[in-house]
Amino acid sequence: MTHSTPNVASASQTPSSLPSSLFVGIDVAKNKFDLARSDSGELLVFSNDPRGIDKIVDLLLGAGPAVVVVEATGGLEQAMVDALLDKGLPVALVNPGRVRHFAIGMGIIAKTDRIDASVLMDFGRRGKSRLAKKRSENQVELDALVTCRRQLVKTRTEQGNIRHATRNKTALKSIDTILKALDRELAALDGKIRTLIDSDDDFKHTDRLLQSVPGVGPVLSATLTAELSELGHSDRREISALVGVAPYNSDSGKFRGKRSIFGGRTAVRSVLYMSALTAIRFNPILRDFAARLRRTGKLEKVIIVACMRKLLTLLNAMIRDNLTWSQLAVVRRIAPIGAGAK
Q1: What architecture is domain 23-126?
Q2: What is the per-residue pLDDT across 223-257, written as a single tens digit (0 to 9) for each?
Q3: E-assigned strands of 173-303?
Q4: φ, ψ at 229 (rounded to 5°)
Q5: Which secondary structure element, helix H or strand E, spans residue 57, and what is its range?
Q6: For helices 218-227 and 169-199, what crossing angle results, to 10°?
Q7: Measured distance CA(235)–CA(336) in Å, rounded
Q8: This prediction's pTM
């Protein structure tokens, strides 16, 4: 007669070392956090201020979650995320669109803060989310400066468009005053971004590698440094998906739909788009690549996206292998060393 052996943890697998089964979802609002736990179904509300953040950190430190899922909400979540990362807690920042599609797929149509917290918790339990990494003070500051610059550029563009449609002299004078103020602030921000990059050895080295590429200027370099820390640490498919330039299939049976891009980091993709347009004209690798695609009859929009993806892939390889543009094998095959450098 045989006896089954009960399931017990080995000596090397103490309860504290076993993988956690607790998943936490936190919905972020301007004034509060809604927190959902997978172990009890409990829903808790905390104020979105330093005191509320401290309470969340203390609660989760004692609970030891497998992952804390937080929806990216344009910066309202950043103080809490930084506090959790400072204590070594596993945090995943997720795209709101992905979470909403997940909720609809689960048959959850209603949307409230408490429902969203539960959905985020379930998203963490069922999916594999990339964990966020703790950022240095310089990284946080650079991200803030680059974000502020982007917002000012958007405002300047809007004011410029308004000026073109304005005929009144008084209104034009007012708009011109605003444009001059914005230009001054943009120049000051560019100076601060440059000073910060030059003062950080890692930033300065990355910037030197990136700007050795024809078509890559200080704006793209600063944006990638601030908002794409995965550059050089991901493969070409992952980095393309992160930025949102990876083509996705739309096939069904014998039907073959058009490949399209979506998702990703819009801010990074917008700057990459402008750099790709320049690179298509002045970068020999991208210029030849675009010409080959044109000869096959590809649409211009498809060509630009393909060039964005290729440029990003090359930049990823450069940072990964610590190479300048002229040291890349693909560049050395078509020109003497240094010929392609800026």
Answers
A1: 2-Layer Sandwich (3.30)
A2: 999 999 889 988 888 899 889 887 655 545 554 54
A3: 251-252, 255-256
A4: -65, -15
A5: helix 50-63
A6: 60
A7: 28
A8: 0.74
